[in-house]
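re: ur msg from earlier - yeah i can do the xanthosine-5'-monophosphate complex, just paste it... oh wait u already did. ok heres what im feeding in:
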Amino acid sequence: MKHELVLVLDFGGQYNQLIARRVRECGVYCEVKPFNTPLAELKAMDPIGIIFTGGPNSVYLDTAPHVDPEIFTWEVPILGICYGCQLMAHSLGGQVTPAQEDTAREYGKTPTTYNTAIPLFQDLPETGISWMSHGDYMAKVPQGFSLAAHTDMCPTAAIADPTRGFYGVQFHPEVNHTQHGTDMIRNFLYKVCHAKGDWTMGDYCRTAVAAIRKKVGKGRVLLALSGGVDSSVASALLAEAVGRQLTCVFVDHGLMRLNEGDEVEAAFAKWDIRFIRVDAETRFLLKLAGVDEPERKRKIIGEEFIRVFEEESKKIGAVDFLAQGTIYPDVIESGAGEAATIKSHHNVGGLPDFVDFKGIIEPLRMLFKDEVRQLGRELGLPEYLVSRQPFPGPGLAIRIIGDITKEKADTLRQADAIFREELARAGEDQCLSQYFAVLTNTRSVGVMGDGRTYDYTLALRAVTTDDFMTADWARIPYDVLDRISVRIVNEVQGINRIVYDITSKPPATIEWE
Ligand code: XMP
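and the outut:
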């Protein structure tokens, strides 16, 4: 069955797949294409609507990415977001200029007023917060367009030409910080593009299974299983697609949380898959000894993972493909397409140049965390595995600031376990997306039992987020924080001070490294 399709044209913004994810969330199939995909190719895909993404460029510069102007005579509705909005204005005869210091340059949560008479904002409140991130400004809107939203600083926060189905928003409706942002995207899909909404996660699952079978054929697949949500869902999907052609290898790098290795093994032991546990703590700690630079830690771990898999695959013999549970935020933050590199996630940017497999299979590469969980449920995975909080591939290595030793890892494991235990006891864990302890490299003076201590500072981090691209720090009650703090300094040797991280993402990231 052919699904309705919306195309997202990628101009290099950080949130491009998030737009696609929002469209899918609204029940419409969506694909992201590079901005310079030939128009004939786009037309052949027969989309019901197009979305231009944001991007880091200024439209008036010669080097800025543009579109074939004929796209505007094709009679397909277009929604331009941020750079995409400016591009549409610029291409259709409007004027975009750098914002002056005191006018129109906006960043962050911005009170905005909408014209709810236009389809994009129909049935939504007239005022709300939108998430802005722009240094350029639409000084003149093109002919045929009217102003559809404004802020204190910017009279052109949104523009609309309902006759042609062209809409532009200066803010980012796809991020959670924009109130009713998803409703705006839904309005674009259903009120402007007249979508019927014919797409579900079940469809994604069937399509992915068919694609994996086609790619793998009779080949054998080795899957890197960490026991986290992503690799568990990837393994279930692979098992569904290729059954016992799949071998799951669980590499215990010695940087897992307390008892985690045994739990993973226990969880997978009862399933009908080939499961191998490799105890590689010594070799990882040896490679990481004395390394304190976060990107180097990630690269070393990424490379060592691959080497262990290669060795295991040689033992198994005739393995053709390596499968990984890479999800979209891993890809984008490792620098994909036009987007800037934030961190090299170990299963993406950390890959060595030479990988001794016929190919890599990453079936979750385009999905966000909550979509992965949904897919896991679709595949019948147990809820305790599906709703588990994420744990990064490099593990505690990126939660120990500075150089890594077994002693530090053990200290952090104990403290982290207390943090998690107390959050669960207080019922707070249900409201959090991710929470963990970080062993900082700072030592400070304390006093304990009349004696002086000079020990490490432990940071506690807890966030709420839907997409892990943006996140808020969690407001854990003081009395719960107090219990955690008292227990950790009393029970864990080597820590004499606890701090709580109250930074959102951006500007911070969720992990410290
Ligand atoms: P940041 O720290 O970039 O994290 O805000 C976003 C989400 O990604 C997880 N994360 C990783 N996951 N390999 C992974 O599989 C990695 O190298 C990695 N680094 C960060 C992080 O825990 C959070 O959920």
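cool cool. Residues 348-354 have pLDDT under 50 and may be disordered. ping me if u need the other ligands too
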